[in-house]
Amino acid sequence: MSNSKYPLEVLLRPPVELWSVFTAGTAAVIAVFAPWALMMTPSVAYATALVLTTVATRRARHAWSVIRYQRNIRRLPAYALPSHKIPVSHRKLFLGRGFRWTQKHTQRLRDTIRPEVQHYIEPGRLYSWARRKEVEWEHTLLLRYAARLLALRAWWNPLSPLPPVGGKAQLHAVEPDEHDVWMDLGERVGHALVLGTTRVGKTRLAELFIAQDVRRGDVVIVFDPKGDADLLRRVYAEAKRAGREEEFYMFHLGYPEISARYNAIGNFSRITEVATRIANQLPGQGNSAAFREFAWRFTNIVARALVALGRRPDYQQIARHITHIEPLLMDYCRAWLPKVAPDWNEEVAKREAAIQERDLPFALKGRSRQVIALVQFIKDRNLYDPVADGLRSAFEYDKTYFDKIVASLLPLLEKLISGKTAELISPDYFDTADPRPIFDWMQIIRRKAVIYVGLDALSDMTVAAAVGNSMFADLVSVAGHIYKHGIEEGLPVTGDGRRAGMPVISVHADEFNELIGDEFVPLLNKAGGAGFQVTAYTQTWSDVEARIGSRAKAGQVAGNFNTLIMLRVKEMATAEMLTAQLPRVEIFSLMQVSGANDSSDPGSPVDFTSRNEDRISVAEVPLLTPAEIIALPKGQAFGLIEGGHLWKIRMPLPESSHDAAMPEDLAAIAAEMARKYTTNDHWWLTPDTTASRQSPVAIATASESAARYRNTGAVFAGSMGDVAERAGND
Fold first, then answer.
1. pTM
2. Rounded CA gap, 306 and 271, in Å?
3. Do 160 and 153 touch, CB atoms closer than 8 A?
4. pLDDT value at position 275?
């Protein structure tokens, strides 16, 4: 019986309840139409028929529960949901369909591995025959059409193949009564971690969360290091569906011509943040730690001087003045010295004329005589300014020695200021002819914008990590500012004089291991009070540990994620992150015992005795094992949410083929991204081989599409007004 009041439920068996259904149903029919056959009066027969119908109905329900359970074990019904039908709540976050995992499901899962029930689990002989014939008939002239029919997934095909999701279907089929799974939005500020190996549904889950956040009206920030074309289109489609396309931005290092611009070091609360964001990208282990500290000092000197002169720091200015400090020192002294020494210009000119090259120290040979005279003047007059003193100390270093000290910094800066990437992360604020908008995080938050950040990590990991970590550091700084002053500081006070509440800022970090750094930890453990809620996606936790370089720091990061969602993983240690937090439960098993005893009494009429009995044994097992997480099908996950409650979830498969909100104008860039960023599911189609196999017509069509895209402008570059202006200019 499948009734839970019994210690053992046996669902993998023939539905014997159908016999009693047939018997009771037949008797009820006879009682209604032929009461004389049962020797009953009509009134008694009708009452009897009612009782028999009730019994048959009850037994039919029991039989149906067994039949449905066995059907789901063999073929779980597909679960697809169009994007526009994704439910959105202002109190809950929709995760998919599923159920709360308890001891009952552990018991049922253990029952499925018994050898005597495998014919209920495995597909039948006809199914196996159909799969063999698909391959055998593929190249047969007349039978290839039959093979195609066998391979069709249609309701009329009883031998249709199972969905290509792999894994162990029983993990979800052990509970036929699934329902929508929701998580309270109050748990989002505790941040969420999504783990799953390649191509098992992490991006689809991200799309599910992003769609809800966009329609809910949150500030949505999506970090995509590799540049997933489907994710990009989905973010824009959801912004368009929610009527927020005017607030949509795209920042992509791989497409600087259409990307918005962002100064990664131009906004800060403290001036020291500029040097920290740059120096943190340098190696800090062993002997490299000292060089990183030197690089931090000289970067901070340059940044302080730029800010004092009223200039906004950027990578190009930092790189220029790090290697050639004289112009910056001269510019600062021209602004500072008139306040403390009005006659400085004439005195410096006299000293410059008296300088002899042979009398200079070795470190100053070949340097500007004007700057040398200026430094001597400041020393002789005993003038002091912290910024000027820092610039002077950097100037007096021997050039060769200085280059060695900052040797690790210069290659990083060179990568950041080379090519068109420099236009994105070192924007010219005074170039009014450039239609690409310049954004900062406070602007994004105030506008309640939706922004997609593609870092093009597959092309240059170093630049992607540097820009990504700088963005995170900037976000942390903005979070601190919002926490202390709100988002309206510096703006006119509204008529009612009220302060706006804390914004809800949803940060989605795909390929989390590519972005993690020292800047990310404060974003997790301190930014929740400013409305930040982070959802991080990665493949294994070992990737994070390898990136950070410290297991203790990785544990610190993991401790800041209150919600854990785990799809299929292939690393035991990662799976144990979930299973180690679960309790152990007791499961029951049926043990059959039989025996016989001989009688030693010659006078006894009993020669022997025998016994047969069933015993129920109890064993303590883990609620969930790592092997079961490793065997998860694609699109399914276990979630540890709301204080440690374990849920089994399967996310809806996408139905975007007829999505009206999906932009057609993005076909060219999405195709280009899909070509450049080849994943493991299309590993054999490299960009070169793909292009070589295309016909001239296809290549020409793609070229026309790309040209049309460039001429019409990019919807990603900023608001739609900016895009329209750019299209008109083009």
1. 0.82
2. 10
3. yes
4. 92
